[in-house]
Amino acid sequence: MPHLFDPITLRGLTLSNRIIISPMCQYSAVEGSATAWHKAHLSSLALGGAGLLCLEATAVAPEGRITSGCLGLWDDANEAALEKVIKTVRATSSTKLAIQLGHAGRKASSASPWDGGQLVAVGQGGWAVLAPSAVPHKSDESAPLVMSADDLSRVKAAFVDAAQRSVRLGFDAIELHAAHGYLLHQFLSPIANQRTDEYGGSLENRMRFPLAVFEAVRAVVPEHMALGVRVSATDWVDDEPSWTPDQTVVFGHRLKALGADWIDVSSGGVSPKQQIPVGPGYQVHLAELLKREVGLPVMAVGLITTAQQAQQIVADGQADMVALGRAALYNPRWAWHAAAELDKQVDGPPQYWRSLPAGKNRVFGDTTFGMR
Question: Which label site among 41, 269, 311, 368 has the fewest CB atoms less than 10 Å from its CB?
Answer without folding.
Answer: 368
